[in-house]
Amino acid sequence: MAGDEQQTTQATPGGESLTVTGGPVDRRAPTEPGGTYDGGRVSTEDLATADVTDGVLYKVRDLEVYFPIHQSFFKSMVATEKKYVKAVDRVSLDIKQGEILAVVGESGCGKTTIGRTLLRLEEATGGHILYKELPVERFTQRTLREYRKKAQIIFQDPYNSINPKQTIFDIVAEPLEVSGLVSGEHEKEERVVKAISEAGLRPATEYLYRYPHELSGGQRQRVCIAGATVLDPDMIVADEPVASLDVSIRNDILKLMVDQKETLGVTYLFITHDLSLAWVISDRIAVMYLGRIVEIGDTEEVVSNPKHPYTKALISVIPVPDPLAKREHVILQGETPNPVDIPSGCRFHPRCPEAIDACREIEPTDVHIGGDHYAACIRLT
Amino acid sequence: MIPRRFVNWLLLWTPVVWLVLTLCTYPKNRPLIIDPQIYPPGEAPSASFSSLIGGFFAPTVANYPAWILVLAAVCVVALGAVGLVRRRKAVTMNVMLLVMGAVFAVWGLDAGGGLGGWQAGGRLGEHGWAFQTAVVVLAALCIYFWARANPERAALTTWNTHQIWRLYRANWQGMLGLYIMVFFGLLALLAPFLADHMMLDPNSQVGTTYAPPTSSYYMWLGTDQVGQSVLAEFIWSARISLVVGLLATAISTLLGAGIGIAAGFYGGWQSEVWMRLTDAFLVIPWLPLAMVLAAAWGQNFWMIILIIGITSWPGTARVVRSDTLRVRELQFIERARAIGSSNGHIMTKHVLPNVFPLIFANTVLVVAIAILSETTLSFLGLGDPLNFSWGTMLHYAWANGAAGLPAWWYLLPPGIAIVLVVLAFTFIGTAFDEVLDPKLRKREESDDRAKKRGGKSPEVAVAAAGGAVTAAGLGAGPAAGPETDKGGDR
Amino acid sequence: MDKRRYFLKKIANAVLTIVLVASFNFALFRILPGDPARLLLPKGKQPPEAVEKQRKAFNLDKPLWQQFIYYWGDTLQGEFGTSFSEKRPVSEVVAERIWPTVLLVGVGTIFATLIGMISGVFAGWRRNGTFDVVTTNLGMVFYSMPTFWFGLLMIMLFATELQWFPTGRMEEPGADLQGWDQIVSLVKHLFLPAFTFAISYVGEYHIIMRSSITGVMTEDFTLTARAKGLSDNKVLWKHVMPNALLPTVTIVMMNIGFVMSGAILSETVFNWPGLGLLAYESMEKRDYPVMQAVFLIASIAVILANLIADIMYYYLDPRVES
Ligand SMILES: Nc1ncnc2c1ncn2[C@@H]1O[C@H](COP(=O)(O)OP(=O)(O)OP(=O)(O)O)[C@@H](O)[C@H]1O
Ligand code: SF4
Ligand SMILES: [Mg+2]
Q1: Given CB atoms, is A68 within the 8 Å cutoff of chain B?
Q2: To bridge A375 with a disulfide, which of A307, B86, B475, C301 should be the other Cys (CB 3.0-4.6 Å)?
Q3: Which atom of ligand 2 is nearest to the CA of A308?
Q4: B171-436 has which fold?
C-alpha cells in the first residue's frame, strides 16, 4: 500500500486513552461522511457515491458482538445481570483496499463472527463498521441489498454451502439474478461463464449443467469462489476456505485467491486458525484471542518478529523446512477460557508463559512496535 | 440438441393429456354396451362409431366457467410477458405463451356469452373442444421451443426424470400401485363409455330389488335396494371418489406445505403462532369436526372437498416443518442471505426444492387419506346426495340392510375398490419416498437383510405421513408421527 | 432437563391446548351459518318466544365477549344445555354413553395392541421372511380398509350367514338377563364391534413395531450383544424389545386419544350405544348441544392421551433421564 495511507493508521500509536483499548488504529469514529451521507440512515445514493479515500476499505471501531445466553424464564427474573457470550469484544482494525488480511486464532475466538458482522449477517451490539466511511449498521434494508453485491462470503464447507438441487450455472448465476444486475439471459450466461473459468474450472461449459454432487470438494470450492466473484465485489470474507479440503488441493485454491486479488482487485478477509496458511497468503495478519485482537501487523513482520506471547506460541509450533533451525516450542497450558467469563486484566494471563502479577489487574493497551505493527501486552510498554 | 427421449415424451404425452382432459367432460351418455331391454322404448342410445367420435365435439366438452378461462389467460400472458421483458432465451416460447393467452381470452369471452352479456360464471361456449385442443397443442409447442432454446436444461430434465423413473420401476410395490391406479383411472375416465349415466336415475331399474348378479351386462353386479344397476353406480362412483380425493389433497397440501414451511423457516413468535395452530388442529379429532362442519355447511361436492382439505393439513404441516428446520440450518441458506436474497426467494428457490421430495411423497399418501375421508363422510350420510361415490353406495347398502340379506354384490365392490385405491396410493407414495430420498435409498442398500430388489418398507408410509395415513385410514384422524415428533423435543 | 420442569412444561402445554380447543369450540358453533339460538333449537317450528328463551338461556343476547365468559363458566361446570332430541340435560345424556365406549375401546385396544405388537416383533425379527411378508402386507390391507366396511363384512359373515353373534346393540331388546347370562350376552354383543375396532388399528401397530425392531437391530449395542454370542432369544427379549417398545407404546397412547373417530364408525355400524353412536345420532338430528359436548370430550381425550404419552415417554426413554 502507498506510504501516505499509513498516516491514518499510525495516528494514535498506543491508544489515546487507557479506558478503551482496541486495534492499532484511529478510533475517532465516523471521520468524514462519504459522498452524500449526512449522518442519518445510509441511503442507496450514499452508497453509490461513497469512495475509498485513504486506501482503507473498512474501518472497524470498538466492535462488540455479544450473544445473549438463553436462560430459563424464572432464572432471568432473579438474575441481576444478563449474561453474554462476548464473541467479539471491542475490536478495532482497518482493512485496506486490495489486501489480504488474515485473521488468525483458536477455535471460538470470534473470527467467524467478525466476518459475519462485516457483512451484517450478524448485528453488532456496539461499535462501528465503516465501509467506505459509511456506517454499515445504519444501512437501510435497500442499502443493505446494494451493499451485499459488494461484499461476499465463502464458507468453510463446500459441501453444505451450495444448494444440492441447483446446477452449477444456477448457483453462480444466483447473485446476478437476485441483484438484478444483468438484463437478459445471454449476458447472464456470459458473466457466469467468465466467473467460472476465472475460478479455474475450464472449459466452463463443461460444468454449467452439472450438479454439485458430481464435483470434487476442490471443484465445489471453486464454484463457491465463482459465485462470490461473479458480481465483482470489493470484499470477500473467506471463512476457512481450505480447512475442509485435501492438503493437495489447498495450494491451488490459495493460489487462485491470490491471483484473483491481483486480477480482480478484490480485498480478502481471510479467516483461518492456521498461522502457516496466513503466512503463505496474507499481506497482513491479525491475531485474535478470545474476542480481542492481540497483535496485528504486516505478515513478514509479525511472523519474523512476534511480540505478543500468544503469537509467539502460535509461531513456535509452525513446522519449518529447516530442521537445523533451533526453536523453542511454546506449548500453551490449559484451554481457551469460556467467552462468557473473560478473565480479568489481560484475558490471556491464565495461559500466558510470560505473565506477571500485574497482568491480572491491568488490561493491556496496544503498543506500537513499528511500522504497521501493534501488540497488546503490558510487558511491552 | 434436444434429446430424442424428450421429443418422444412430448409426442406421447400431448395426446394423452388431451384425451384425459376431453374425457373428463365427455358427454355422459355414449355407452358402448347397449342392452335394448332395459331402456324405455325408443330411448336406447346408439353405440355407433360416429356417436363415439361425435362425443369429442359435443358442447359439453371443456365447458369450463368463463372466469377460470380469463384467469388462465391473464396468468399465461403474464408469464410470456415476463419472459420477454427479462429477455429469456426462449423467445419463441414466450411468443407462443402470448398466443395461448389470446386463445384463452377468446375462449373465456365465448364461454361468458360474448361481448354483449358476458357473465363470469357462464359456461355457454359450444366450441370448448376446439379451444382446448388449441391450448394443448400450443402448450406442447411451448415446451418444445423451450427445449430448443435451452437444450442443456432439456437434457438435464430428461436425464433426471429418466433416473427417477428407472429407480421407480425397480420398486415392485410402486409399480403395482401404479397399475391399480391406471386401472381405476381408466375406469373413471371411460365411465361414459362403460355405463350410461342414465342408469343412475332412480327411475331406471334394471331388475328387482336386490337381485343377485346375472350375465346381463348391467346386472354383472346385481341390483341395489331400488333395482338399479350396481355396476353403473360403481363405475360412476370412481369419478367422484377420485376427484374428491385429488382436489381435497390439493387444498390440504397447499395449506400444509405453506404453513409447514412458514413455521419452520421463520423463527420466533411467527413460528410459535403457526405451530400452536398446527398443534391445536392436530389434537382436534377430524371426524367429529368434519361431521359438525358437514352438518352445518350442507352436503355438496365442493363443501366435502373443502372440509376434507381443511381437516387434513396438520399432518403435512408437521412433517414439512421438521424438514424445513433441517434445511434452514444448511449453509447455502446463509449464502443466499449473504447475497441479499429476500425471504420469499429463499423459500421458493432453496427451501422448497429441498423439501419438495418429501412434500411430493406425502401428497400421494394424503390422497389415500382424503379418499378414505370422503368415503367415511359419505358413509355417514354426509356426502353429496346428487353424486354417487363408493362411500355413498356403502351408505345406502348399510342403511337399507344389505348386510342382513346378505347382498354381498352391493357391499363388496365399493369396499374392495376403496381398499385397492388406498393401497395403491400408499404404495406409490412409499415408493416415491424411497426413490426421491437418497438417504433412504442408501439405508435400503446397506440394510443387508433387505436383499430383495427394490425392497419395501411400509413403515415409511407411516413415518412420512406423520402417522396420518394410519390414523385416518382407521377413521382416527391425522395423528402426529411420534418418531419425528419426540425426536425434536429433546 | 429435570423431571419437574419437564412435567410442568408438558402439563402447561396440555392446559394451553385445551383452552385453545375449547375456545375453538366456542367459535366453531358461532361461525356456523345461521343463528346459534336457532341452531340450538330443534329443527322445524321455532316459535319466536322459544328462540328468545333459548337466547336468554345461553346468554346469546349478550355481547360476544360476555358470551365467551359465560361459555367458559358453563363449560367448567359441565353444563352444555339441553339435548333437544331427548329433552334432557346434555351432561346426563353424555354420561350414560361414556361407559359403553370405554368398554368397547378398552377391549378393542388391548386386542389390537397384543396382536399388532406380537406379530410386529416376529415380523421385524425375521425381516422379509414368509411370516413378515404375509403379515405385513395383510397389515397394509387392514390399514387401508374403511373400518365401517369391515364391520359390515363382519355382520354379513358372522351375524347374518353364520349367526354366531348378534348384529348389533349391547343387549337383546326386552330380554332381562341376570348374572352369568348377562355377561355371556354382553360378551357376544361386544365381540364384533371390539374386533372391528381392533382390526382397524392392528395394521398400524404391526408396522410400527416391526419398523422399530428393525431399527434397533441395526444399532451397535445389538450387534455387540450378538457378537458376544448371546442366544437369539436373549438378544431379542433383553436388548431389542425394551428399546423397540418405546415408539410403539407412545403411538398406542396417542391413538387412544383418537379412539373417538374409530368409535364413531364401529359403534354406528353395530348400534353400540356409546359416545360414537351419540355423535352420529346427534349429527343426524342436528342436535347441536350434544355435538358440542361430544366434540369437546373427543378433543380433550386426545390432549390427555398425548400428555400421558409424554409422561410415559419420560419413564421409558433412557435418553431423557441422562
Ligand atoms: N449465533 C450465535 N449465538 C450464540 N453464540 C454464538 C453465535 N455465534 C457464535 N457464537 C459464539 O461466539 C463465539 C465465537 O464464535 P465464532 O464462530 O466467531 O468462533 P471462530 O473463531 O470462528 O471459531 P471456529 O474456528 O471454531 O470457527 C463462540 O463461543 C460461539 O459459541
Ligand atoms: S499482558 Fe501479561 S498475560 Fe497478557 S500477554 Fe502480556 S504478559 Fe501475557
Ligand atoms: Mg469459524
Answers
A1: no
A2: A307
A3: 5
A4: MetI-like fold (1.10.3720)
